[in-house]
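Methods: example folding runs. The two proteins below were folded one after another, and each record is reproduced exactly as written to the output file, sequence line first and structure-token line second.
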Amino acid sequence: MNIPENLKYSKEHEWVRVDGDIAYVGITDFAQSELGDIVFVEIDTVGDTIDADEIFGTIEAVKTVSDLFMPVGGEVLELNDKLEDDPELVNTDPYGDGWLIKVKMTDASQLDHLMDASAYGEMINA
């Protein structure tokens, strides 16, 4: 299971990559493998400010639909447009081209409540 060291992780299996006060959010390799083939990503919260742990969208796989939870609070600036035509990028490149949203964080200290790669690895292997 791929768990990059440079990211932070939520207990709901979202990852965060930080660039200044901007956070890129996606789902982990573990989450996409559990969901199976991703067929649709629905995120209609662009422009909204959402608190940490609130739902920002849904992701649909062949066998299920799952809520997506904000790992850090902030304004949803952008949806990854590539996912509209190619939702399986979440399966093939979950930490790269398969990112979901870009967020302007309201409180970067919320990152301290997320797990590092080691802690996330322990959680999914427990």
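Second run, written to the same file directly after the first:
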Amino acid sequence: MVERKIRVGAVSYLNTKPMLSGLQSGPLSDKIELLLDFPAGLATLLQKDELDIGLLPVGALHELGDYSIITNCCIGTTGEVASVAVFSDVPMHEIKTVILDYQSRTSVLLCQILFRKLWKKKVEFIKAKDEHYLQEIGGNTAGLIIGDRALQHRGNSKYIYDLGEGWKQLTGLPFVFAVWVTKHKFDEQFLRLFNEGVEQGIEELATKVPLSDCPGYNLYTYFTKNISYSFDEKKRAGLELFLKEVSHHNEISALN
């Protein structure tokens, strides 16, 4: 009987490539099957038990029930993240509508929290259905863009409101966008080897991940200054606070 491979899911954004590279070249490379999707899709796959482990957006954690965070690495930032931002042709006080990226619940929740608590600005939020929403950004209509597309869009808008920087201004804490999560039980040896693979990829970042410029942004700056992979105590505190804010935000939304 052929042993089934462990199904591991992640997004295909640039910021995941170091960790995925480590897993694909590490001690578990022949035991895992890598599946790529956008963040919101990964949450659905894990809920349906179509994934065993996922690099999951933290905005979906409250929907999982029992789960475990299994590594000391994450996708996070200690300030400006660059790849998650509200892009606008006009300053904040003139924005009337914000089109929300359809690929990530976490960034949408963070965006709504920041508009309410940091920028103290009431706007109309519209959920984008596909990529074409990028063409609708203009005038008083801003757009939340995440991932590689956000880096590429940085030269197209006059005003950029970075969500990682906004969270730091609001709370004084770093922000965590995604963590490695499972709803299954794995033995200690597997978890140790999984961690080793993820950490190895991050350590080999400069040699395994191309750091040449992408349109709109310098990737060396992105990987070394914007993205922070260590899931340390400050990031755990930031995550805990965000989950509390999400719970409160959902309560407010239910009343309106």
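Comment on the second run: The radius of gyration is 18 Å.
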